[in-house]
Amino acid sequence: MPTLTDSFLTAVGLVLSADADLIEIVGLSLRVSLTAVVLAALIGLPLGAALAVFRFRGRSALVVLVNALMGLPPVVVGLVVYLAFSASGPFGVFGLLYTPTAMIIAQTVLVFPIIAALTRATLSDLLQEYDETLRILGANRVDVIATLLWDGRFTLATALLAGLGRALAEVGAVMLVGGNIDHVTRVMTTAIALETSRGALPLALGLGLVLLLLTLVLNAVVLGLRARLEEHAHG
Amino acid sequence: MTRIWLVCLGMALSPPVLADTPVVLVQSTTSTQNSGLYAHLLPIASDALGLDIRVVAVGTGQALRNAERCDGDMLIVHARTAEEEFVAAGFGVARYNLMYNDFVLIGPANDPAEVATTTSIEEALVRIAMTGAPFASRGDDSGTHQKELGLWDGIADVAAASGGWYRETGSGMGATLNIAVGMGAYSLTDRATWLSFENQGSHVILSEGDAALFNQYGVIPVDPTHCPNVNADGAAAFTQWLLTDGQDVIAGFTRDGEQLFFPNAD
Fold first, then answer.
1. Which residue among B69, B70, B198 sits closest to A199, beta carbon to beta carbon?
2. CB contact (8 A) between residue A35 and residue B9
3. In this structure, what CATH number is given to the domain that contains residue A100?
4. Minimal Cα–Cα distance from B214 to chain A, Å?
5. Which of B189, B197, B215, B233 is most solvent-facing, going by the fewest CB within 10 Å?
6. Residue A2 lies in a domain
7. B209 with B62: CB under 8 angstroms?
8. Is residue A1 included in any domain, yes or no?
9. Under an 8 A CB cutoff, do B198 and A104 touch?
10. Does B209 lie in the same domain as B85?
C-alpha cells in the first residue's frame, strides 16, 4: 500500500518536473470543465432566475425536478450522451463521440442543474427582501431578473464554483463519452482511474493531489476576486 | 464578458489538433493498454502508416458492442467465440489471429486452498471451490471473464456461489486485481496485465502453464457495409501492418526483460 508521503512526493515531483503529458492532461481538464461551466451558466442562470421570478403552473414541480437533477449520477449522463452521439444514435452524424466536445456536452448536462437550483434559491431570498421596493419602482420582470442577478452576483460566484467542482471531479461521464484516449480525451480523473487500474497507486494518488491543488487555486482565485470586488462595491 | 464566452465557445467547438491526419479508432481490450503495449507499438505504426491511431480500452464484451454500434473502425480483443459470432453476424470484415499469451491464476502467497501444488487449472479451481476460499471474478463479460466462466464449467456452479466465496466485481481487470489483493482472494488474469501490475501486494502466480489457459488475441476490421461511417481503408492498413511488420514490433515489447505478447499471425 502506498503511504501518503510517497504520493505527496510523487505529486510534488509531477508539478516540479512540469511533465509535458501532465500539462496536456491538466490543460484538457481545465478546457473541458471551464467551458462546460460557462455553457451551464448560460442555461442555469436564466433558468434559475425564471424559476425564482415567474409564477406559472407546474413551477413547483419544475423546482423539485431541477433540485433533484443536482444528484444526477455522472455515469448515467455519460451513458445517455454516449447513446445520443454514438454512430448509431440520433446525433451520430456529427462524429462527436470520443472528442472533447462530447465531454463538454456531458459535463454541461451535469452542471447546469446545480447552477439553476442555487440561482433560484439565491434569487428567491433576494426577491423577498426587494419585492416591495421593486414594485414601488414599477420594475418589469426582466428588470427584476437583471437586478437580482446583479445583486446576487457574489453568492452566484459560489454556485459557479460548486458547478466547476462537480465538473472537474467527475469521472463516469467523461470516461464513457471521451474514451480516455491518450493525447486526445485523457483528463485528470480518467488518468487517475487508469493508473489505479494499473496498480500504480502512488502515481494515481499523486495525480489526485495535483487535481486537489488545481481546485484549491481556482477557488482561491475566484473567492479572492470576489472579496476584492465586494470591498470595492461597498467601499 | 461576452467575449470570454465566445472564446470559450470557440475552444469547445474547435476541431482536434490532428484533424488533417486520418483517424483510426480501435476498440480494444484493456490488457494491451495497461501493459504498455500500445505506448510501444502505436508511435511506430502511426509513423509507418501516416495514421492518427486512437485506442479506447474497455473490456472485450463492451468493445464488441461499441463496434457493433459503429463506434470504432476496428477491434483488438480476446474472446474467440464472441469474435467469430461478431464476424458471422456481418459486423466485422474478417477475424485474424494477432498474438497470444496466457492466463494465470493468482492468489495470496499463504495459499489457503493449497492450489500451488496442483498440476492443472481444473484441479486448482476444484480446490478453491471445495475450501470456499474467496475468488474475485471480473463479472463483466470481458474476454477474461468469458474464459474464466468456461473454466468453471463442470467444476462449480459459480452463479449460485456468487456473493459467497465467488465474488463478481463487475469491473475491469485492474480494479478486480486491486480488490483480489485487498481481500486476499484468488483471481484469473492474463500474464501481461499481472506482470505490469504494480500493486501485487503479497499475491503471486499459483497456477500456470495448462494448455487450457492459452489466451489468443484477434484483430477485426469493422465491416463498412454494416457501418458506412468507418475509416475502412485506415482500419485495413493498420490491420495489415499488425499482421506483417507489426509482428516483430509486438515480439520486441518486453517488461523487465520478459516478453508479454507472442505474435502468431497466420
1. B198
2. yes
3. 1.10.3720.10
4. 22
5. B233
6. no
7. no
8. no
9. no
10. no
